[in-house]
Design brief:
The complex is a heterodimer of chains A (263) and B (263). Chain A is built from 7 helices and 7 strands. Chain A has 263 residues and is of the alpha/beta class. Chain A has a single domain (8-191, 222-247), classed as NAD(P)-binding Rossmann-like Domain (Rossmann fold), CATH 3.40.50. Chain A has a 7-stranded parallel beta sheet, with helices on both faces. In chain A, strand 5, helix 5 and strand 6 (179-186) form a beta-alpha-beta unit. Chain B has 263 residues and is of the alpha/beta class. Chain B is built from 7 helices and 7 strands. Chain B has helices at residues 17-28, 41-51, 66-80, 104-132, 154-173, 195-203, 222-233, and strands at 8-12, 32-37, 55-60, 85-88, 136-141, 179-186, 244-247. Chain B has a 7-stranded parallel beta sheet with strand order 3-2-1-4-5-6-7, sandwiched between helices. The termini of chain B are far apart. The chains are: A alpha/beta (263), B alpha/beta (263). The interface between A and B is large, with 44 and 45 residues.
């Protein structure tokens, strides 16, 4: 029996990277998937790929940091399939590598709007549909950048730290409702978002990429995040709540170290 | 096809509670099991596994004794030809002894079983896994008591903090081997170790109050920890390393709080 049989899932940022991989995996496990992205073409491509593989999916376009759009996507899922079981609030922006002194409040506000207020809106509006049915799983994409320094610029890291806080505070707000709220903290995963970082490291002549600093000595792939999201979305994770779980090859298990000097 | 199909697995503390639940779930998913416990319950666990059509052998051993741990790893190799997964789950609670009544002898025994035991599992299992050159997954049972106060006595909590540290340091010690080392931090789970807490609460007519302070508002069951173990043991967790993941209904997402103050 598929692990998400009969469940309805909304995934934001579903047009590429981790969101796309998760949408495809969810559909393989029996979920009906509403693929949401600000890019209409990639949202449609994800839904098409699911349908081509025999799954059920719809595409929808909108801004994951805009309340009206977020509210609308959950209403659409419920209207289409009668219920909402799973939300993966995954849409996010990296904000580039801007030095501290060049960062502006406008830039900060935009990153916080998408990366932090977006997940807040997902929790707010998804739980509206989930609480009356007494069940649901909300997963947000945070980042190892929300745990420690040096995985993103300040506003990106602060937004992701905020997401880690959000899943803790809102897990308690939703206490006793049967709705669980958790976050995944991807490490260095090869997606469109990290490609510029990886390119920048090459530009700087750094042969050692960040993924090589992990004990697994490699970057991760989107599907390796998707499997954790699948676990958290499924009923197998029935006692996992308010957590932010790193999938980072072991990166956050260490402070910075001199390569070659470990035990 | 099972999610652990063909894998050779050792589980210590398999005679009851979390270890028994994991034994049943892992073998249902195709694992071949060496079930280890110092208590007779391990024979019953193996009987239950076999009755369900699974493959298991029982070994009576002390998980905190180096020669026993080495012998258990040897038993897996002689029986199934290899070792893919070990779950160092055996532990003792040490009871609720007030600080000023605790003795060095009590501390030593708790640290021996709960912390040196997992160290020995990592040491001997990884030696075999490195010979095989196909990686492996090592799981240790830590506890939310290793993260914060008020989930166990001082030596129990310190031993579990040590386990969390152990998975961080050894994941790096095993860099580049493909062996992943992670811990699970169970919250309040109904097992032999916590039975007294549950029974006392029920005797006082407060059975429905158990776990109410976490947002899932109940105690957990062993299967909910075993499910996380299954995920970490499987290849789905291929980029999860050096982590200590709470399965606690959300308990560690909050500091202590006063009743209805949740926003």
């Amino acid at each position: 029996m598929p692990r998400l049989a009969g469940k309805v899932a909304v995934i934001t940022g579903a047009g590429s990277g981790i969101g796309e991989a998760t949408a495809l995996l969810f559909a393989t496990e029996g979920a009906k998937v509403l693929a949401f992205d600000k890019n209409a073409d990639t949202a449609r491509a994800t839904a098409d790929a699911i349908r081509a593989a025999g799954g059920t999916a719809e595409a929808m376009t909108g801004d994951a940091g805009e309340e009206a759009d977020v509210s609308r996507v959950f209403d659409a899922a419920v209207e289409k399939w009668g219920q909402l079981d799973i939300v993966f609030a995954n849409a996010g922006i990296p904000g580039g590598w801007i030095p501290l002194r060049d960062q502006t409040p406008e830039r900060w506000a935009e990153i916080l709007r998408v990366n932090l207020i977006g997940p807040f809106l997902a929790v707010k509006h998804a739980s509206r549909h989930m609480v009356p049915r007494g069940q649901g799983s909300i997963v947000c994409t945070a980042s190892v950048a929300g745990i420690n320094a040096n995985a993103g610029i300040h506003p990106y890291s602060a937004s992701k730290a905020g997401v880690i806080s959000l899943v803790k505070t809102s897990a308690y707000s939703l206490a006793g409702t049967g709705v669980r709220v958790n976050a995944v903290c991807p490490g260095i995963i090869e997606t469109g978002m990290t490609r510029p970082t990886i390119a920048r490291l090459r530009e700087l002549g750094r042969e050692v990429q960040m993924g090589k600093l992990t004990p697994l000595r490699r970057n991760g792939m989107p599907n390796e995040i998707a499997t954790m999201v699948l676990y958290l979305a499924s009923d197998e994770a029935s006692y996992v709540n308010g957590q932010a779980i790193a999938i980072d090859g072991g990166l956050t298990a260490s402070m910075p170290y001199d390569v070659g000097q470990k035990s | 096809m099972g999610r652990l199909e063909g894998k050779s697995v050792i589980i210590t503390g398999a005679g009851s509670g979390i270890g028994r639940a994991a034994s049943l779930i892992f073998t249902r998913e195709g694992a071949k099991l060496i079930a280890v416990d110092k208590a007779d319950g391990v024979d019953e666990t193996v009987k239950l596994v076999r009755a369900a059509g699974g493959t298991a052998e029982a070994v009576k051993a002390d998980a905190g004794l180096e020669s026993d741990v080495a012998a258990v790893v040897g038993k897996a190799v002689s029986t199934y030809g290899k070792l893919d997964v070990i779950w160092a789950n055996a532990g003792v609670s040490g009871g609720w002894v007030p600080l000023h009544d605790q003795t060095v002898e009590q501390w030593n025994e708790i640290l021996r079983v709960n912390l040196i035991g997992p160290f020995l599992a990592v040491k001997h299992a990884s030696r075999q896994m490195m010979k095989q050159e196909r990686g492996g997954s090592i799981i240790c049972t830590a506890s939310v008591a290793g993260l914060k106060a008020n989930a166990g006595s001082s030596p129990y909590s310190a031993s579990k903090s040590g386990v969390i540290s152990l998975v961080q340091t050894t994941s790096y010690a095993l860099s580049g081997t493909g062996i992943r080392v992670n811990a699970i931090c169970p919250g309040l789970i109904e097992t032999g170790m916590t039975r007294k807490t549950f029974e006392t609460a029920r005797e006082r007519g407060k059975g429905d109050k158990i776990g109410q302070i976490n947002p899932t508002q109940r105690g957990g069951v062993p299967e909910e920890i075993a499910n996380m173990g299954l995920f970490l043991a499987s290849d789905e967790a291929s980029y999860v390393n050096g982590q200590a993941i709470p399965v606690d209904g959300g308990l560690t997402a909050s500091m202590p709080y006063a009743g209805k103050l949740r926003p």
